[in-house]
Design a protein that fits this description.
alpha/beta, seven-stranded mixed beta sheet, two-stranded antiparallel sheet, 11 strands, 50% helix
């Protein structure tokens, strides 16, 4: 089985937090605690230097979030009238901050919005990237609320010496089209890439919130949260303020209106993988100082690498991931080589059964197979030794081929025109949206801002 040291670094990781540095440390000190940051994900090593699976219960305790328990799931279903998504039912979305508060507001008819994002480090996304977006689409459909999707191409540029601005911008445009293919409602969804949005005529309110957040965030806070040191560039230290600003409705007056007192009270719910939590801890610390509500957060686990559950899929390592561009045959070959929880021989497997806790094909079925009863039958049969590793790999292959094939068909319908419309700053349609007069005033202000920008460009020629 491959170790963390065999996996290439994800583009955008600071040198001090790479998987290679973890592997080298393990050779010297053997045991190593797990590391979960926006730039590095590893379950750590035991005393023998073997990689360990990520301990999500420990993360909840370390990060100070709350577990999503049976009572919260029952309340979610009662309030929304919808069966919880399979990721909620199976503990794959497992932790939260203030989700009860969002449910309280939803019961009272108070509008809120969703915010999620993607750091575009390659031009093709893998199935692990679609997990949080699929869950976010479910939330958008259930709550019928607007959604803002942030493509942090600037962050990837800041963190990686190998990537140019041209590279990350190209990645963000391609990733935007992949994200749209998940099935989001155009009338309720705004997507933006940092490198193009922040310099446009619609970002003045957003930029002001970046400044307000930056003023309240110290260098020591960033060092303590992200592990940065003197070798990190100044843009890396500033970026958390950028990611935080999207959590405030006042950053988007063209969506939520221009009444600052009213808009500042609109709550935000952020579905994201647990490695993004450090960004939003900073955001939540400073939001009340800026007169805003703390954003609520809901955390998902990582889709394991094909190599094993001690690391997540990596876009920079084709052998660790199932890409959305993979053919059926490529998917079959990759699943065939995935880390198995089966025994060394068929006889031994029939005698003591397989280990679903570490079997990657079974783990993938927990993410993608909708039928709870069928999943349970597979689990029982595999653990009893009634189902062999080859059979569970066949079941997993079929499920992923269907998933990726469906995505490919939807992706064909996403044209450049569709992408541009999703990324055009505009009024979204949702319950509690600004009135017609307020919308008209906002449009006129945007027109004036664009005219002023055009005049500046002309005068600079």
């Amino acid at each position: 089985m491959a170790t963390v040291a065999d996996v290439q670094d994800e583009p955008g990781q600071p040198p001090a937090l790479t998987s290679l540095s973890l592997a080298e440390a393990a050779k010297q000190a053997k045991s190593k605690e797990q590391v979960i940051t926006p730039f590095d994900v590893s379950g750590g090593f035991d005393e023998q230097g073997k990689p360990k699976a990520i301990d999500y219960n420990k993360l909840v305790d370390t990060f100070g979030s709350q577990r999503i328990d049976k009572l919260l799931l029952e309340r979610f279903e009662k309030v929304t009238g919808h069966k919880p998504h399979r990721m909620l039912r199976r503990g794959l979305v497992f932790s939260h901050r203030d989700l009860n508060s969002i449910l309280d507001k939803y019961e009272k008819g108070i509008p809120f919005f969703l915010y999620t994002g993607r750091g575009p480090s390659s031009d093709s996304m893998h199935v692990g990237h679609t997990i949080p977006f699929e869950f976010t689409k479910y939330l958008q459909d259930v709550f019928d609320v607007p959604l803002v999707i942030m493509l942090t191409d600037d962050e990837k540029f800041f963190h990686s010496p190998k990537l140019s601005l041209k590279d990350v911008y190209k990645f963000s445009m391609q990733n935007a089209m992949d994200i749209i293919a998940v099935g989001f409602d155009m009338k309720k969804t705004f997507i933006f890439a940092d490198t193009s949005f922040v310099d446009g005529g619609s970002a003045s309110a957003f930029n002001n919130n970046v400044r307000e957040m930056g003023k309240r965030t110290t260098i020591n806070q960033i060092r303590g949260t992200f592990g940065f040191n003197d070798s990190n560039n100044i843009a890396e230290f500033n970026f958390p303020a950028m990611q935080s600003a999207t959590a405030f409705a006042t950053s988007f007056p063209f969506i939520f209106g221009t009444d600052p007192k009213k808009v500042a009270k609109i709550p935000c719910l952020i579905p994201c993988a647990i490695d993004q939590d450090p960004y939003f801890r900073q955001c939540r610390d400073n939001a009340p100082k800026m007169g805003f509500l703390k954003p609520a957060i809901i955390h998902s686990v990582f889709l394991p690498s094909l190599r094993g559950s001690e690391s997540k899929m990596s876009a920079s390592d084709a052998d660790s991931s199932i890409f959305l561009s993979d053919t059926d045959n490529q998917i079959k070959k990759k699943i065939g080589k995935a880390f198995s929880g089966g025994q060394d021989t068929a006889e031994l497997h029939r005698e003591i059964g397989g280990r679903t806790a570490v079997d990657v094909p079974f783990q993938y079925l927990t993410f993608f197979l909708e039928d709870d009863d069928k999943l349970e039958r597979i689990r029982v049969a595999y653990e009893k030794g009634e189902m062999q590793s080859g059979e569970i790999k066949m079941a997993c292959t079929k499920e992923l081929q269907t998933y990726v094939s469906g995505f490919r068909e939807r992706r064909k319908a996403v044209t450049e025109e569709v992408r541009k419309e999703f990324m055009r700053p505009r009024q979204l349609t949702f319950k509690g949206m600004p009135g017609e007069k307020e919308q008209q005033d906002a449009r006129q202000r945007r027109i004036r801002a664009l005219e002023e920008e055009l005049e500046r460009l002309r005068s600079s020629q």
